[in-house]
Amino acid sequence: MSETLNETSALALQMKIIDDPTWQQQRQAHWDEEHQDAYAECWPRTTVKAVKQLFMRGEINRKGLAKFSAGQRVALYFQLFPVQSREAFIFILGQLEGDEIANFNAHEKAGTFFYALLKIKSDIRHDRFADQSKAQRLAIFDWFWGDKFDLNRRVPCLVGGSSQPIDVIAMTVLRHFLSSIFSWMDCAEKHQPAPFWLERMDYALSAFDCLDEDAFSIQRYDGHDKNREGFQRVLWGLLAGPIKSAVNKLPAHIKEMNQIRDKLIVRFREIADHKPAFDSLWQHIDKHGVDFERKLKITFTLSEEQLIEWRSTITQGKSPTYFGDDDRHERWSSTEAIDSKLRRLLKRTDPLLDKAWADLFCKGTSNVELGADEEDLDEPWVQLELRKNINGTLILLYIFPESIQDVDALEVGVFDIISQLPVSDLFSWQYFGPI
Fold this sequence. Notes:
alpha+beta, 48% helix
């Protein structure tokens, strides 16, 4: 670690963790699992050693990291430093030199580092902010950004010995905020905690004051600005409606999601009352809807005995091979040939269920292939996922019904079929798929 770090400072006390044997063992395992091979494949041994020194000890060895660009080095400092705290960020910012200072602010990189504080990565084993509580993460966010969006805000500490402005764009803030909510609702089956961004709704919504009228165009954006494209997609999706169920079988946690969306809609209404372009967009969506595909999700639970039976029936008793052209068809939960796999199960339970399934998807068509690749959504695409829960195995069946006009009827039909199987905790809902 740099000699400029005072041994009695708050950060020095936090950095004592790097000498703890248990922490070292866990950190080494993290390095071996996620970083060693990734860096070793692309960089020379001396560079990998310098990266590991940063990761394990917080040592900034610019000579060893010289093959990285200034922007890459800044990203490494923030992402790999052993302690992710306000004191650590102040230290890192103070250590930046030359081109690193310019690259910290270039293309909103500063924003990227600090927006990450409000991301929830429950599916990732090693979250860089895992040691920080929710309150601590929010406190760091407040320290860096303040309580209201400000185009003229400056970094709240010295950057390489000088005061620096923050390169920030209102639409970026809103894209991060709205995307966190939209993605949370889109992945409702994962039972993720509510986004931290909801705790800073006032800050995010204050950025609406800085948007121009073009941000609320009723025309689909077709340019190269990822901020504008992403903002439009999630704003339209949230305005278009809540998660819905044609069979009124929404689980409690999804009802709570819809209630949170309702509160956001109330805030949107307050903003739209003072932004005519926003109000016009909203009226247009209320009248015409949005040209988004809905995807249908159905979840249910199988006991371990039922799971074994399903797997055996679908694979016809064959053990999956892990080599050869037929492997994808033998693994029972792969997307390959899902139609025929499920129909084996339905036919065994009741031949009428098999016929009902065929009628749902094949009405008006000669042969609908439900196992199409995800990239090719010209026809309905069905996939199975398995997730463990306390009652057994949660099965997620989700469908992109692109060639089906009446998605409500499809949901009712699929729900009715699945309800006649020996399953429990059956729920279904619809939300917006990709544009």
